[in-house]
Amino acid sequence: MNSHILVCDFDEDLISRLQNQNFVVRVESLDLIPHAIRVVQEKNHLHTFWLHTDVPLSDLPSHDLENTGAVPYYIEVRGLGNFQESIGKIRLLRSLNVMILIPEDAPGSYRDCKILSSLFVPCGIKFGSQNPAWDSLADLMSYFVYSKVPHAPIEPFHFVISNYDPQKRIDFNFIYFEDPSKFLHLDARGWIALSRKDLEREEFISTDLSQLDQIEDLPAYGQRLESWREFFLKPDGCAYCPGWRICLGKFEEGADKESGCKRFFSEWMDATEYYQVQKARSEVAHKTW
Amino acid sequence: MANILLTQRCVRSCPYCFAKEHMSRSLSDDMLSWEDLIYLADLLEISGEKNVSLLGGEPTLHPDFVNFSLYLLERKISVTVFTSGVVAESTLREMSSAFQGVLPDGLHFICNLNDPDLSSPEEYEQIRSFLGEFGQRTVPSFNIYHLDFNLEFLFQYMNQYGLKRAIRFGLAHPIPGDKNQFVSIQDIKRVIERLLSYTPFFQRYRITLILDCGFPMCAFSDEQLGMLYRITGDNFRFGCGPAFDIGPDMMVWSCFPLSSYHKKSVYEFNSIQEIVNFYQERLRNIRVEVGGIYEACDNCQYREEGKCAGGCVAHLLSAFRNEERVRIEEIYL
Known about the structure:
The structure holds two protein chains of two kinds.
Chain A: E1 5-9, H1 12-16, E2 22-27, H2 33-43, E3 45-52, H3 62-66, E4 73-76, H4 83-93, E5 98-103, H5 109-118, E6 123-126, H6 134-146, E7 154-155, H7 157-163, E8 183-186, E9 192-193, H8 196-200, H9 219-225, H10 244-247, H11 258-288
Parallel strand pairs in A: 1-2, 1-8, 2-3, 3-4, 4-5, 5-6, 6-7
Antiparallel strand pairs in A: 8-9
Chain B: E1 2-5, H1 20-25, H2 34-46, E2 51-55, H3 65-74, E3 78-83, H4 89-98, E4 107-112, H5 121-134, E5 138-144, H6 152-161, E6 166-171, H7 188-196, H8 199-204, E7 208-211, H9 222-232, E8 244-246, E9 251-253, E10 264-265, H10 272-289, H11 301-304, H12 313-321
Parallel strand pairs in B: 1-2, 1-8, 2-3, 3-4, 4-5, 5-6, 6-7
Antiparallel strand pairs in B: 8-9, 9-10
């Protein structure tokens, strides 16, 4: 039995070929969602809808948002856009089970995440390049971790600091459905890839959908899951960075690591440890009382 | 109450302006950023503050003025905007559309109105357009800086545009170390006489008076205090602070006349109360040196009881600048 969650673009034929699977369904338009929900739930289970658009939040039709109900959503938009148009939608989003995902290269992405979080809308930054604006990213992370005022989660910071265990590996790509230990990506033919990027590059681990249950037995699968170990074979590589446990070498090709990714991930690591200490103190306090 | 300056830019050049010394030292293109606004909204929230004032310069000049206001309202913070009413047509249109559904309690304007003779015809038209659109949310404000001021135009505006039945009166104070037109200590009583000569109008139009800080209680006769009570009820005070201003550069100071006095970064404080306490302590130090603007302030029962602050400390600081430096050093900072 396949324990992975399957990620695919909405395709009625593909989804109907499978049974009792958990799906992350990617759609390009909100008005497709009511129909897509019916199709997925006929024989399978819905994990999340992932609306991918190239427009800002202000340009999404309000009416379609109202019809989305309690289903979990990722809405990937290019920022807030016109704030006055967005504000009504922000009120609506607070009543939905939704996370707004903003690509880091969208104009004002970090600022918009902060606005959304402060208005209690869960949100996240989606990494793209190897050289994001590290200072803005660090500012956003600090806001999420250290701000004393209640606010909504900002991903992937929330995922990491809430689930961090010093004894285990944590991969924040989970947030983007890119962790191959949890997610598999399917194209319209049912060919299987270990990430969205692999899918786009047509680098499939299997071209046989019936192999889904045996995917973990394939050598390539095991190699991918253990590929992080290779960093330890490179002298002075990412594995020797203080931020390694969170980064896992994702920004290996980035420029100016010292003042860029190394500094940022070290700060994130400190913030995570700070959170762990606070959490432990709070648990002790609860036990005392 | 925290006053947040969205921008240092202004559209007017009022002769009494007590902000101009501060403005002249600041970068005119300084604009409050979104990130800093969020920080300040958090600071207000953590301090339990539910109200904020947006100032300038002219706050509507900030390109995100409407967005900032909506954001604060969304965070359940009531907004009072201090404006000249000289608002660009496009901004006014944007405001009309965006603020349409905002509850009256959430958003007010305090419109600082000068005698129309001081405004150019274009400015005058812009003010009329603003009042036409937002008159019902607006308390007119008038700064007194000379003795022969005239209030009749305010009554006309109130009737014409349905302004709120209250007028905020400010006394123009000196800027220590700079020149502006202000009401001298000797003239305060005459200003009050002139102001209360309009009592029949205040009563006829049922207008309450909001006295800004700096009016000393003893400048009013008992009869004038009684008249003030009849007009305004017991809702008047002769205090000083605890409002403070935060600039677009995130510097904080006590008030415009004292904008160079113990200026600090807002990041040095953890709450609004810390800022208030800090400046109250600084002002208290000044008043330990000199009780108030009159000699009698030193032993005044009403000052000791907190019923009167003893006038604006800007007068005192101005006086200190013209004497030997014999006082505690902190006074001169």
